[in-house]
Amino acid sequence: MEKPFALALHGGAGTITRALLTPEMDMAYKASLEEALSIGHHLLSTGHSALEAVEAAVVSLEDNPLFNAGRGSVFNKRGRHEMDASIMCGKTLAAGAVAGVRNVKNPIQLASQVLHHSDHVFLCMQGAEEFARKQGLVFETDEYFYTQQRYEQWQQLRDSNVYMLDHSDELKDKKFG
Amino acid sequence: TVGAVALDKHGNLAAATSTGGMTNKNFNRIGDTPVIGAGTYANNHTCAISCTGHGEYFIRAVVAYDISCLMEYKGLSLNQAADLVIHDKLKHMGGEGGIIAVSADGEIAMPFNSEGMYRASWVEGQAPHVAIYK
């Protein structure tokens, strides 16, 4: 017997003043969320698995420069992009995760490849990138991951030990470790 | 950070999360996103969860698995378990952020204790819901 399906997604957390969130930005964020929601909903409504739906919805958000993942990833201390992703199946408890990967267009697809085609759960950095190449995943140049807004955010912080959440406009005066 | 959770027609749950981390992060820091049980978790007996926020706190609180355990071992509903972990445990630790979750029964929870969170949901037979911030 078929059950009612359900889907939820998020595009990050943080703080942003209403003054900075223009009506145009508000519409752009909502349209992007709606697009990802529609992709996942379509898959679920046509009988695809929850695992396929969450991966496709996240790919849509990774391809959107508005969000801090994939194409819109923030800059690290060295002015580079290091991405993390994971995926888990509730039926089998199988999981795949990657950390610190660079230039992989869709890290969630790499996590999915780890889940489906690896004896391991968690790969990181150059090893994970090597696995991505073996699995035929798409890589992009550093320019693909460049967004002016993220670059300006990093410029405010690059000479400090301060870091910032996805959508924050206030600085956290804390250090890691 | 972005993430998705789903319950399909066959009753199976799944969760996925992806992130670029924090601006100006150093020393190859990773947060909770790729840590199974902290930032991402799915179990057909309980729920599927994807987290977003200050990862160090989510790792220390083992947020996603903790919510699942509260449902499995203590019999809490998804919303009860999620509220307890996000608004009580995590907040008292000083952790900022939130989750999206769906239970095996199709119940959706999206609590957060930060100023804002981008989120959306769609349950079969209902209208889609998209929201930004509190």
What's the layout of helices and strands?
The complex is a heterodimer of chains A (177) and B (134).
Chain A: E1 6-14, H1 23-45, H2 50-62, E2 83-89, E3 95-101, H3 107-117, E4 122-124, H4 125-134, H5 148-157
Parallel strand pairs in A: 3-4
Antiparallel strand pairs in A: 2-3
Chain B: E1 2-7, E2 13-19, E3 40-42, E4 47-53, H1 55-61, H2 63-74, H3 78-93, E5 97-103, E6 108-109, E7 116-123, E8 129-132
Antiparallel strand pairs in B: 1-2, 3-4, 4-5, 5-6, 7-8
Structure notes:
- The complex is a heterodimer of chains A (177) and B (134).
- Chain A is of the alpha+beta class and 177 residues long.
- Chain A has 5 helices and 4 strands; from the N terminus they run βααββαβαα.
- Chain A has helices spanning 23-45, 50-62, 107-117, 125-134, 148-157; strands spanning 6-14, 83-89, 95-101, 122-124.
- Chain A has a 3-stranded mixed beta sheet.
- Chain A is globular, with a radius of gyration of 17 Å.
- The N and C termini of chain A lie far apart (50 Å).
- The model of chain A is unreliable at 171-177 (pLDDT under 50).
- Chain B is globular, with a radius of gyration of 14 Å.
- Chain B is built from 3 helices and 8 strands.
- By secondary structure, chain B is an alpha+beta fold.
- Helices cover 26% and strands 33% of the residues of chain B.
- The longest helix of chain B is centred in the middle third of the chain and has 16 residues, at 78-93.
- In chain B, α2 (63-74) crosses α3 (78-93).
- The model of chain B has no long low-confidence stretch (mean pLDDT 95).
- The two termini of chain B are 18 Å apart.
- Chain B has helices at 55-61, 63-74, 78-93; strands spanning 2-7, 13-19, 40-42, 47-53, 97-103, 108-109, 116-123, 129-132.
- In chain B, strands 3-4-5-6 form a 4-stranded antiparallel beta sheet. A two-stranded antiparallel sheet of chain B has the order 1-2. Chain B has a two-stranded antiparallel sheet with strand order 7-8.
- Chains A and B meet through β1, α1, α2, β2 and β3 of A and β1, β2, β3, β4 and β5 of B.
- β2 (83-89) of chain A pairs antiparallel with β2 (13-19) of chain B, so a sheet runs across the interface.
